[in-house]
Amino acid sequence: MDEERRKAVRVAKPVVVRYNINANTNEYRKRWDETQVKNLSETGAKITTMQCYPQGTVVTLNFSLPNCPSKSLELQAKVIDCQPLCGKYAAPISGMSLTRVEFIHDNEESRKSLREYVDWVLKRQEGEIKKPTLPLDQ
């Protein structure tokens, strides 16, 4: 999805997320991988993954948002795009990928929680920018 096609505001604040590819199938893996969200919106996210997954792969994500840490979200998402993660000199980092996913919202509550988180981050960033600074001699 091109930047121009995105309808939702994304925030680039790291959030720890657990993900599982086969959580809702008979092939359920007991092991969840843990990674970081690179950016997040109410409609999707970009995460690092241990491998590249085909477009359309369904991923289960489990995470808590910093504005409401006691509430855990578990969302289904489908892979939109997956590219090898590259290091400082554009060399691929072995096995790591940047994976863009689109959330499959089965209820309005998860969408609302994500929207509130994005608004919370934006307000905090706005507050940091508008914070008055004192001269060094005061």
Summarize the model shown.
This protein has one helix spanning 108-130; strands at 15-20, 33-40, 44-49, 58-65, 68-86, 92-104. The chain is α+β, with helices and mostly antiparallel strands and 138 residues long.
Considering the chains and any ligands shown, give keywords for the structure:
138 residues, alpha+beta, Thrombin, subunit H, six-stranded antiparallel beta barrel, 1 helix, 6 strands, 17% helix, globular
Strand content: 35-45%
Report the principal-axis shape. Answer: globular
Return the CATH topology: Thrombin, subunit H
CATH architecture: Beta Barrel
Task: Tell me the CATH superfamily.
Answer: predicted glycosyltransferase like domains
CATH class: Mainly Beta
Query: Nearest-angstrom radius of gyration?
Result: 17 Å
- Mean pLDDT rating: 81
Structural class: alpha+beta
Let me know the largest β-sheet: 6 strands, antiparallel, barrel
- The tally of helices reads 1
When the domains are counted, the total is 1
Helix content: 10-25%
From the N-terminal CA to the C-terminal CA, the straight-line distance is 50 Å
Low-confidence stretches: none
H/E element order: EEEEEEH
Strand element count: 6
